Amino acid sequence: MSEILQTHALTCGYSGPPILQDITFDLHAGEFLGVIGPNGCGKSTLIRALTGILSPESGTVELNGQDIANLSSKEIARTLAVIPQDTTVHFDFTVLEMALMGRTPHLSRLQRAGQSDYECALEALRRTDLLPLKDRPVTELSGGERQRAIIARALAQKPEILLLDEPDSHLDIGHQIEIFDLLCELNQTQNLTLLCVSHDLNLAATYCQRLLLMEKGRVVADGRPETVLTSDRISSLYRVDAAVYPNPVTGTLQVTPYSNKTVR
């Protein structure tokens, strides 16, 4: 697989000491990569650095072989779309209007959306199963429907890569599975490259082909879920005992944290 996104010795942060330190990894075309790690380890900061919102103190981020520091925000957005952690919508945009916003990187400053843009937006709604709700205000959607509308907006950009910062945040378990099933389908049928930050180790192990484990701004493990998620590593990073074993139904890795106080 060819590398579509690469970091080389990436170090960056805000004011004060760097949050990310010497991050080097490749994201391959068509891959579903999960980024996991304890709170405060730099996962969301990594998303900001990969999009060019946060400039490196040293090192580089390359998008299709080009340093993103040399690309405009529109050029980046034509290749890379982002689902942020906070997807709150404060205005009564319809679902279709929300999807059309994804066409902005492809329009000039004063250009209005044309027929091809509407077709892209409607196709994005079809792929996210939202076409019947296209005229409904986004503020009236359920949490799962709203998250799918945000994904539809990103798909309307026609990106090669989708970066997601905890897409399952604030969703119940049914909607979490719904969103990850959708992401898996897009990855497999549309060859969409995905990088997903998640706190849920079981969802990450079930859906992601590869995991990047972070601690204190550094990558401490990179590989398939069964090589990254070990009991010792989870205990060390998350400070909790955990049993790691194959899920008896799916066969994928299962992580069950426990307290010795509850063991009978």
Question: Are there runs of 5+ residues with pLDDT below 50, and where?
Answer: none
Major β-sheet strand ordering = 6-7-8-3-9-10
> Kindly state the mean pLDDT as a whole number?
92
β content, as a range?
25-35%
CATH topology (level 3) name of the largest domain: Rossmann fold
In CATH, the architecture of the largest domain is: 3-Layer(aba) Sandwich
By CATH reckoning, the class of the largest domain would read: Alpha Beta
Which structural category fits the helices and strands? alpha/beta
| Gap from first CA to last CA | 48 Å
How many individual β-strands?
A: 12
Characterization of the model:
The protein is an alpha/beta fold and 264 residues long. It has two domains: 1-79 and 160-264, P-loop containing nucleotide triphosphate hydrolases (Rossmann fold, 3-Layer(aba) Sandwich); 88-158, no CATH class. It has nine helices and twelve strands. It has helices spanning 43-50, 73-77, 95-100, 115-127, 143-156, 173-189, 201-207, 225-228, 231-238, and strands at residues 3-12, 20-28, 32-36, 58-63, 66-67, 80-83, 161-165, 193-197, 210-215, 218-223, 241-246, 253-258. Strand 1 (3-12) and strand 2 form a beta hairpin. The radius of gyration is 19 Å and the shape is globular. The mean pLDDT is 92.
